[in-house]
Amino acid sequence: MGGDHDLSAVSAHSDRLATGVLLQLIMGIAVVSIAVVIDPVLRRHTERLAMGYVVARALEAVIYILGGAGLLALITVSEESVAAADGTPYAALGDLVLAQRDWAGHAILDAAVFSIGALVLNTAFFRSRLVPRWLSLWGLAGAAAYLTAGLLVMYGLEPLSTPQVVLEAPLGLQEIALALWLIVKGFDTQAAARTVALSAGLTTY
Predict the structure, then answer these.
(1) CA 102, CA 160: separation in Å to the nearest integer?
(2) CB contact at 8 A, 81 and 91
(3) Do 94 and 77 touch, CB atoms closer than 8 A?
(4) For residue 13, which phi and psi values (nearest 5 degrees)?
(5) Where do the structural domains in the chain lie, given as residue ranges?
(6) Each residue of 157-176: pLDDT tens digit?
(7) Angstrom distance (rounded) from CA 171 to CA 148
(8) C-alpha 186: how far from chain center
(9) All residues at 6 or more sequence positions from 89 whose CB lies less than 8 Å from its CB, including other chains
C-alpha cells in the first residue's frame, strides 16, 4: 500500500471507495442474474452443466462480496490509522486487507471460479450448438488460458502483469464477441433442436 500516507488518502476519500464497493456488489448480482436467466435455455440440453454454471457464478458473486467487505474494512482501518499517533501497525493491517482482496481477485477468482464457469458455459454451448462451435471453442481455449493465468499468480506471477493480461485477453475478447453474437443473432435454436434429436436417435444430418 505504501504505508500511512495511503491510508490517509483512503480516509479522505472513503466515499469513492464505498462507491467502488457498491459497483462491485452490483456486478456480483449481475453475474448471478446472467446464470439464472440462461439456466432454462441450457437446462433443456444439459441439466448438470446448467446447474454447474449457476453454482460457478454464485461463487464468483461470493468472492465479489468478500472483496467488497474487505475494502469497506479498509475504511475503518484508515480512520483508526489517522486517529492514532503511530499509524505503522495500521499500515501493515491495510496491506493485509489489500493482499486478501488481490489474492481473491487475481488468483482464486481466476483459477478456481471464473475460468471454471467459462469452461462449463462453453462446454454447454459446444454440446448444444446454441452458438457456433467456433465461438464456443474460442471460449474453451480462452478459459483454459485464463485458468493458467490464475495458477501462475498463485505461484508468484505479479498480478496484472503483462503475461497475465495476455493470457486473460482471449477470453475477454470472446465474451465480447459472444455478447454481440447473441444480440445480433440470438441462440441457434434450430441447430440445438437438431442436436437433441440426433442424440435421441430421431434424425440424422
Answers:
(1) 10
(2) yes
(3) yes
(4) -125, 40
(5) 4-199
(6) 888 899 999 999 999 999 99
(7) 12
(8) 23
(9) none
